[in-house]
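Data card: per-record layout.
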Amino acid sequence: MTLTLAPTAGVFSTAATAAAAEDAPVVILYGDSLAWESQDHFVAAVTLGTDATAIGRSFGGTALCDYLHIMREDAATLRPAAVVLEFSGNRFTTCMHHANGEGMGDGDAFLKYLDDARTAVRIFASVGTHVYLAGAPVSRPVPGSFQRGRALNVLYSWLAFLSPPGTVTYIDAGTAVQFGSDYTDELPCLPEEPCADPEGTSVVRSWDGVHLCPGDDSHRDRATARCLVWSSGAYRYGRAMAAPVIAQLSR
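The structure for this 251-residue chain is written out next.
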């Protein structure tokens, strides 16, 4: 799969944003479906909280390796002040397959994400960009299977710990939609969000136990996969990813 991102609904091309880099700091969010669901809230939070130009580059089912060529272009042309990388472990696209076309197992996929995360850090370190590695929320437990997100969260936090100070930061963003470290379907409503439930709680995860849009797939637009109802999970996750970036740019 060759990934091309067009300037549509929260996803912007390099050409559409090159001019902005001359006037304001640039912040870019790269990611898979979790970033896609929450990037509008991320962009809004960064834009309102700083003078930066915030850009979302995400698409469901993608992996970190799908974006490396775009990252190289962005580093050269936009020289972003900060980037956030949110990737929870997809292995559907061609770059996550072996040379013979077979998909990668857990071990090989983990090592591939480690190598690609290191490559991404090197790309942006060359232009002085602060890299934020965002942890994903854990998925609903499935008997006989590891919980999606946990292994890569450890990888990202380890990579940030071993990086030179002030260059790479791990964001434990997944906990924004969890009760502690455990999978959570509902959380108390936030003061600023819609709260129709009489018990004062908001659904923060999808029916599949992975995504953030509440309810079943009838709550998604078939053409764009956008959530058609208020998504407390997307709001919380997007703002959690944005918070440390806002703090950095506000110093």
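Known properties of this structure: The first strand starts at residue 26 and ends at 31. Residues 14-182+231-249 form a domain with the Rossmann fold fold (CATH 3.40.50.1110).

See the next section for split statistics.
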